[in-house]
Design a protein that fits this description.
The chain has about 180 residues and is α/β, with parallel strands linked by helices. It has one domain (about 15-165): Collagenase (Catalytic Domain). It has five helices and five strands. Strands 1, 2, 3, 4 and 5 form a five-stranded mixed β-sheet that branches. Strand 4 and strand 5 (about 100-110) form a beta hairpin. Helix 1 crosses helix 5 (about 150-165). The two termini are about 20 Å apart. The relative contact order is 0.17.
Length: about 180
């Protein structure tokens, strides 16, 4: 679990490049989603007081592709909503030699799963995808909730803070699965 950081002067990150690729055809991506996810990545970095330029890759996939990735990388043979593949550890990141940006890693979103969860939680697809992106960005920065307890609560509070920064109301509709 990443140590809690207190930032007195929260500033925006220098520059973030978010590369988004849609590799699924199951769901038409609504207008504005890509901009929302870029704003979400920036909000997480701002909240964390991240310094320097950064790059993040976001990949939209279907449930079958997500199931294969989850099985390959986590040995769990079922689909999930989001996977994070960090390229850094302990605030040390790979650097893109062409741009000098810190490469944070990859976010993989199951779009059909996000649609299903938005319906289950009775909120918009935009909110769901923003939340999943915030969640994954925190993983890319070293946060973890796998052991539950205070680590999970602390990460959840940060996710909700990012959602509020983006203009989405606080919710208590999420339940952690054991």
């Amino acid at each position: 679990m990443k140590k809690m950081r207190r930032r007195k002067n929260i500033k925006t990150t220098d520059k973030i490049k978010v590369i988004i690729e849609n590799r699924q055809k199951a769901v038409k991506i609504p207008t504005g989603i890509r901009m929302l996810l870029r704003r979400c990545c920036n909000a997480v970095l701002t909240l964390e007081g991240f310094e320097g330029d950064a790059e993040v890759n976001i990949l939209f996939v279907d449930d079958e592709t997500m199931k294969k990735l989850n099985h390959k990388h986590r040995n769990i043979n079922k689909t999930t909503d989001v996977l994070s593949f960090p390229l850094g550890e302990n605030d040390i990141y790979d650097i893109n030699p062409e741009t000098g940006s810190k490469m944070l890693g990859d976010i993989v979103l199951s779009i059909p799963r996000a649609v299903k969860q938005a319906e289950e939680y009775e909120h918009s697809l935009q909110r769901e995808m923003g939340y999943l992106t915030a969640h994954s960005m925190l993983h890319l920065l070293g946060y973890d909730h796998e052991n539950g307890g205070l680590d999970g609560v602390y990460m959840r509070e940060k996710e909700e803070k990012v959602m509020q920064m983006l203009g989405y109301p606080k919710t208590s509709s999420y339940v952690y699965e054991e």
